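Below is a filled-in request sheet from our internal design queue. Each sheet records the structural input a requester submitted and the sequence that came back. We keep these sheets so that new team members can see what a complete request looks like end to end.

REQUESTER: design group, bay 2
PRIORITY: normal
MODE: inverse folding
CHAIN LENGTH: 307
BACKBONE (tokenized):
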């Protein structure tokens, strides 16, 4: 997994307990493991190559849910992961399943390196997704999710047709296993994503709604995007950013709430939609910044309880 954010988020989770022994959130209304704010549950991204240690950190932070990143899938690891989730009373909401190969997160190299759109990378990445779906089944994880690439806006583009035809057997395999597939927003407009979900049509395709990606890729105002694909949103990444001002580079990621994402309005609209999924804190720049994760957790809890 070359994607830097997974490693940095996992590092951030680990660093919180390292830098803040005896961690206490100092909030009488805090969310503890197994609890939720209303019907929305907060979570973090975590590695799970060593689930006994990795998931203990998530539990100690007081988050009830987590999205997981794993390097190598195996039946033995699935058993260990299931046992650890049960032990720490955690819910794994999805398995982030990407690669193999490098992903370049910009406008010039991204279309040729991200997801299943690049032809030469498809076979290995399809195989990885199939393995991830089987691992989800074995470990009791309800969904697999990924960036699937710069899906073409033009439905008559040959790459669009190839993508739909590539995704159909993946979706059908996941359906047989009882697993959902989440598209993470970013490289495509909400309308294009809606079209792809309907054209693939396996009935188990949903959205991991990354609020900042829609801004940073210049694809949509996050609130407006919900009006297009809100009914398919099963999970949300709490992340903030700015619109791009350079045609080569994505917009800048910034800490919540310093960017363009209006989280009070986003969460209020999700409630109107009846959303009861997970809100996962994601911040690629966090590194070992324990203050940011804790501050954002408190910020989101207050919005959820008041909106």
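RETURNED SEQUENCE:
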């Amino acid at each position: 997994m070359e994607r830097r954010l997974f490693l940095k988020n996992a590092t951030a989770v680990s660093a919180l307990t390292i830098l803040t022994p005896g961690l206490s959130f100092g909030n009488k209304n805090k969310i503890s493991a197994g609890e939720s704010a209303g019907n929305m549950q907060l979570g973090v991204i975590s590695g799970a190559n060593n689930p006994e240690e990795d998931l203990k950190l998530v539990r100690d932070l007081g988050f009830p849910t987590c999205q997981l990143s794993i390097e190598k899938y195996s039946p033995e690891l699935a058993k260990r992961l299931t046992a650890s989730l049960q032990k720490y009373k955690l819910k794994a909401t999805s398995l982030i399943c990407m690669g193999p190969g490098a992903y370049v997160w910009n406008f010039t190299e991204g279309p040729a390196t991200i997801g299943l759109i690049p032809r030469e990378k498809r076979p290995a990445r399809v195989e990885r997704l199939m393995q991830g779906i089987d691992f989800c089944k074995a470990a009791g994880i309800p969904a697999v999710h990924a960036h699937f690439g710069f899906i073409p806006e033009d439905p008559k583009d040959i790459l669009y047709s190839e993508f739909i035809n590539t995704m159909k057997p993946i979706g059908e395999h996941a359906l047989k296993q009882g697993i959902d597939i989440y598209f993470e927003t970013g490289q495509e407009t909400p309308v294009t994503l809606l079209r792809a979900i309907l054209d693939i049509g396996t009935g188990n395709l949903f959205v991991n709604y990354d609020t900042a990606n829609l801004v940073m890729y210049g694809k949509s105002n996050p609130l407006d995007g919900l009006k297009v694909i809100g009914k398919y949103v099963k999970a949300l990444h709490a992340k903030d950013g700015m619109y791009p001002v350079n045609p080569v580079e994505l917009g800048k990621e910034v800490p919540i709430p310093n960017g363009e994402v209006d989280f009070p309005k986003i969460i209020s609209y999700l409630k109107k939609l009846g959303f009861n999924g997970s809100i996962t804190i994601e911040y690629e720049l966090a590194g070992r910044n324990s203050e940011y994760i804790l501050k954002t957790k408190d910020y989101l809890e207050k919005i959820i309880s008041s909106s």
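SHEET NOTES:
- The longest strand covers residues 41-47.
- The radius of gyration is 18 Å.
FILED BY: M.R.
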